[in-house]
Structure formats: structure tokens, C-alpha cells
């Protein structure tokens, strides 16, 4: 009898212990889930102001896949648009929106709650937010990219600043997606500090040219010849963007720009050049992003195959050729390189430095239109037609020279005309057909 009475007591005690353990583990699981949810929600966990958000509204899955690609580049995690609130957007400094439209411009399922909040969003102050927006849709519907356009309009109404005009994609068209990748392919906007600004032209000369060095807050990689997109605000507060070629390599740790402060016939200098050459104080900060040059692949092939490279640049177009040229000189190739630069009064300092330190395989010619012996670059090309033709001629089997011409548009037309009459027509046509005749005019 006594033994039988002990068994129920022990069983009840064990049951109570087991129940306590189960309840404790369940409560611990809830706490861990809540902590994980807070950490993975946009703005959750240790998120502070200044964070970058990647947000998607996906119908077929393309917007979500693109969002994951963008997030991986940034070292973060994308989130469905429904998970974001106006408060989270206010705390962010940069946001990337990748938004599909369902049917005739409607919000996808994972963005319907956000769509219902659009009216309230318009009342928020988002003047501290910069954003990029990709809208995906189908042009067969009247309200093409309707949801993306609605969100874009709401963000602008809140004072948010677009980093570039909205990119719209029709049924996943590769050409449309290429525009997006060109905008965000290299690095997202970050803070850069002006470390040096040097005048390159004589002080008495009009339209002065400057050499700028900018250092990022965190290390950044880019490809030779990359494009720097600088975010600006017009006097009326309208977001603007100006693009400049990067003359330096990432190994230097600094972006080098060469730009001219040019005045129009009756107006002030350009918005970007005026601010960068005079308005921005030494040590001042710039919002800047980097993307690949459209000529990156062709120049990389010429470098890989150690092919001859002829570069012709006018004025500040020198920056576009310096990056690829420096990359070639940093390698182990032996193919000849030839740089011809046209300027007004005197050779730019970076060109003089290169001429002093460059190897024997590099030839540099500086043509001055207002120098001691003034000559226009198109005339110089005609005078040196024989040497230029020999340089770009195929010659030995496997020899495929590349020709890269860059600078402002009007001088560029005159240079192309001079090349057309100076080079062998067959060689020129062959370079054009094979993608080895590159131009970059602005």
C-alpha cells in the first residue's frame, strides 16, 4: 500500500517538471523569435539613422531576385515593401525600391498594405532620404509601371531626393535592366571628402580647369575608367546629378576628377562644375556613386590581349583615358601605347607627370591651340596621318589595335572628320565593326 502511494506522487512531480521545462522552452523560443524578427525587420535590432534599405514589391519574383542582388552588393538583406513604415524611411539615409506592378498598375500582394499607406506617407518629411527606384511592368497595360510611379511621386512629395530618374522595365527587357545595372552596378552613393583641388590652367586663362582628389569614408573599389555620379541640389532644391570620368585607379584610394568651370555666353557656370571647383570647401563632403564605363569591356579585352592602344582626348576628356591608361601601365604588357591630348595654353600637370615617369612603350603628344606654336588638334592629326595609320594598322597576325577618342562634342566631331580623312578607310571600318573604335563625347 505504502509503495503504491509513492508512485503517483513521483509521477505528478515529474509531470510538473516536464511541464515547466516545456513552457520555459516555449517562452524562450518566443523571445528568440521576437529578437530575430526585430533584428531582420528594416530598421530593427541595432539599426540606426543612416542605414541603407533595399525594398521590393514582387509579382513574378523578378523584383525580389533583383533586390537580393542589390542587397548582396551592399552587405544587407532586402525586405518586402509591406514591412516598411514611414518612421523607418525617416531613419534611413538611402533606400533602393524595386517595385513590380500587378495587372494594370496595381500593387503586388506583398505591397498592398504599403499602398494603402501611400496617402499618409505623403504627409511625412523625408528630406533626409535619397533613393533609387526601379519600376517593373508591362507596356501592354495602360497603367504601365503604375505602382512604381505612384511610389515615386509619393516619395518626391515627401521631399525625398531621387539619385537618378526612375528606371522602368518592360516585361524584364534586358536593355531596360541594363540601365538599372549601369546606375547601381559599381557602388552605392557614399560620402567622399575633397582632399585636394589644383588649378591646371594659367590663372589669366578663361574657363579654368581643375584637378580634384576625393577620398571615401570607407574603402571603395571601381574599374578603370569608371564614371562618378555626383548628387547635387539646384538652388530651388531640385535634386540633380552630374557625371564625370574617374582618372585614377582604386589602388590610389582616391577618385581623381578633371573638370572645367565653364561659363555660358550669358549665364553662370554649370551647377556641378561651379560647386566642385569653387563652392565646395577643402575637406567638404560629396555624395558620390561609381559605375562602370560603357567601354569597360572593350578596354579590358585590349588590356588582356596586350593590344596597342591609341587615345586621343581634348581638354578635360583626358580624365576618361587616364584611368584605362594607368591600368595598362600597371600591368606587365609590352604593347605600344600612344596618348594625344589637345588643350589650349599648357599641358595639364597629370599629363606632365605621366610623360616624366612613363615607360618607353608610351608615347605622349600634347597639342596646344594657343601655345608658342599654336595648332588645332584636327590639323595635327592630318599632319601625322602616316604615323597614326601605321599605329592602328593590323600588321602582324593577331594585332588588333584599339582607338579611343574622348572630349567635348564639337571638337570631337572635328577630330572624327580628321581621322576619317587620315586613316586607312578599311582599317577604320574594321575597328568600328569589331568594337575597337570607341568614342566618349559630352
TrEMBL record:
Any one Gene Ontology cellular component term annotated for this protein: cytosol
Coiled-coil regions, chain positions: none
Transmembrane segments: 6-33
Entries under InterPro entries matching the protein: FAD-bd_FR_type, Flavdoxin-like, Flavodoxin/NO_synth, Flavoprot_Pyr_Nucl_cyt_Rdtase, Flavoprotein-like_sf, FNR_nucleotide-bd, Riboflavin_synthase-like_b-brl
Domain Flavodoxin-like: 52-185
Span of the signal peptide: none
Keywords from the named record: Electron transport, Flavoprotein, FMN, Membrane, Transmembrane, Transmembrane helix, Transport
EC number per UniProt: 1.6.2.4
Domain FAD-binding FR-type residue range list: 187-301
Any one Gene Ontology molecular-function term assigned to this protein's record: FMN binding
PANTHER family assigned to the protein according to its UniProt record, in alphabetical order: NADPH--CYTOCHROME P450 REDUCTASE, NITRIC OXIDE SYNTHASE-RELATED
UniProt-recorded name of the protein: NADPH--hemoprotein reductase
Amino acid at each position: 500500500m505504502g509503495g503504491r502511494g509513492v508512485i503517483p506522487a513521483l509521477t505528478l512531480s515529474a509531470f510538473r517538471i516536464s511541464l515547466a521545462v516545456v513552457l520555459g522552452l516555449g517562452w524562450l523560443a518566443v523571445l528568440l523569435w521576437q529578437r530575430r524578427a526585430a533584428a531582420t525587420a528594416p530598421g530593427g535590432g541595432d539599426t540606426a539613422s543612416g542605414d541603407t534599405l533595399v525594398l521590393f514589391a514582387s509579382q513574378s519574383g523578378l523584383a525580389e531576385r533583383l533586390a537580393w542582388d542589390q542587397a548582396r552588393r551592399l552587405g544587407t538583406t532586402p525586405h518586402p515593401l509591406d514591412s516598411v513604415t514611414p518612421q523607418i524611411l525617416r531613419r534611413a539615409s538611402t533606400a533602393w525600391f524595386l517595385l513590380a506592378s500587378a495587372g494594370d498598375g496595381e500593387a503586388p500582394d506583398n505591397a498592398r498594405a504599403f499602398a494603402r499607406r501611400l496617402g499618409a506617407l505623403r504627409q511625412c518629411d523625408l528630406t533626409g532620404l535619397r533613393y533609387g527606384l526601379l519600376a517593373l511592368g508591362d507596356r501592354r497595360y495602360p497603367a504601365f509601371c503604375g505602382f512604381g510611379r505612384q511610389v515615386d511621386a509619393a516619395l518626391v512629395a515627401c521631399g525625398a531626393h531621387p539619385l537618378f530618374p526612375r528606371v522602368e522595365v518592360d516585361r524584364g527587357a534586358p536593355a531596360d535592366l541594363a540601365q538599372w545595372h549601369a546606375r547601381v552596378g559599381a557602388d552605392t552613393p557614399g560620402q567622399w571628402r575633397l582632399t585636394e583641388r589644383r588649378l591646371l590652367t594659367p590663372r589669366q586663362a578663361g574657363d579654368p580647369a581643375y584637378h580634384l582628389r576625393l577620398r571615401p569614408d570607407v574603402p571603395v573599389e571601381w574599374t578603370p575608367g569608371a564614371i562618378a555620379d555626383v548628387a547635387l541640389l539646384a538652388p530651388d532644391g531640385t535634386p540633380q546629378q552630374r557625371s564625370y570620368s574617374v582618372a585614377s585607379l582604386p589602388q590610389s584610394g582616391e577618385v581623381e576628377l578633371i573638370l572645367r568651370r565653364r561659363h555660358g555666353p550669358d549665364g553662370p557656370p554649370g551647377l556641378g562644375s561651379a560647386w566642385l571647383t569653387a563652392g565646395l570647401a577643402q575637406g567638404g563632403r560629396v555624395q558620390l556613386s561609381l559605375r562602370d564605363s560603357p567601354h569597360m569591356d572593350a578596354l579590358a579585352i585590349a588590356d588582356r590581349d596586350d593590344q596597342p592602344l591609341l587615345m586621343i582626348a581634348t581638354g578635360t576628356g583626358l580624365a576618361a583615358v587616364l584611368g584605362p591608361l594607368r591600368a595598362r601601365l600597371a600591368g606587365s604588357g609590352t604593347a605600344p601605347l600612344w596618348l594625344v591630348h589637345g588643350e589650349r595654353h599648357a599641358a595639364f600637370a597629370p599629363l606632365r607627370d605621366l610623360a616624366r615617369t612613363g615607360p618607353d612603350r608610351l608615347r605622349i603628344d600634347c597639342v596646344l591651340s594657343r601655345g608658342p606654336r599654336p595648332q588645332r588638334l584636327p590639323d595635327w592629326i592630318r599632319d601625322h596621318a602616316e604615323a597614326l595609320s601605321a599605329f592602328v594598322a593590323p600588321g602582324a597576325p593577331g594585332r588588333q589595335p584599339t582607338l579611343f577618342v574622348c572630349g567635348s562634342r564639337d571638337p570631337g566631331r572635328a577630330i572624327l572628320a580628321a581621322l576619317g580623312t587620315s586613316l586607312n578607310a578599311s582599317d577604320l571600318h574594321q575597328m568600328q565593326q569589331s568594337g575597337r573604335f570607341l568614342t566618349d563625347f559630352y
